[in-house]
Amino acid sequence: MFEIISQVLKYVFILIIYLFIFSIIRLMYLDIKSINKKGSSLDTAYLKVVNRLDSLNFKMQEYYILKGTISIGRSSKSDIVIKDKFVSKNQLNIIEEKGSFFLEDLDSANGTYLNGERVEDIIELRNGDKIGVGLIQFIFVDNRG
After folding, report:
1. pLDDT tens, 94-105?
2. Looking at the record's lineage, which domain of life comes first (predicted)?
3. What distance in Å separates the CA atoms of residue 89 and residue 92, rounded to the nearest whole number?
């Protein structure tokens, strides 16, 4: 009797382990699938937040689509609001002009950084550029044709 119960419990335990492994693989698949959808379905220019969003003490989206002139700063009137104490109320603008995007620092106190260098003038953005604003890092992604 004891052997039968131990055999049944052994197979139940193995089944539970397989179901657990299957659920982990399924979650990984769904996560990878959602990343591919987000990245490839955006046929536009956008900013992607590099920071882990759960490590920030304020809310931010993962992506910000760029059209026209976008203002970034701590002010609630900004298009992209960053509630970081190292970000000025009016930190920078990203301007779309003739199919290109340009970054303009608005004389912010702590500065805006493009690929690790402080921005002094208006600079044209290129695909893959890293923009540093306070504690936030963005990557400029241009998926337009």
Report:
1. 999 998 999 999
2. Bacteria
3. 9
Phi-psi region of 115 (alpha: psi -120 to 50; beta: other; left: phi over 0): left
User: What does the block give as tokens for 35?
Assistant: 């990343």
| DSSP strands (E only) in the chain | 45-49, 63-65, 69-73, 80-81, 92-97, 100-105, 112-114, 117-118, 123-124, 130-133, 136-142
> What are 82's two structure tokens?
């960053």
For 48-103, write each residue's pLDDT tens digit.
998 877 777 888 888 899 999 999 999 999 999 999 999 999 999 999 999 899 99
| Cβ atoms 104, 83 nearer than 8 A | no
Q: What's the pLDDT at 63?
A: 87
Residues 49, 137: contact at Cβ < 8 Å? Answer: yes
Is the Cβ–Cβ distance between 53 and 62 less than 8 Å?
yes
Which residues are CB-contacts of 44 (< 8 A; sequence separation ≥ 6)? 65, 66, 67, 143, 144
- Give 54's contacts (C-beta < 8 A, 6+ positions apart): none
Q: What DSSP state is assigned to residue 28?
A: H
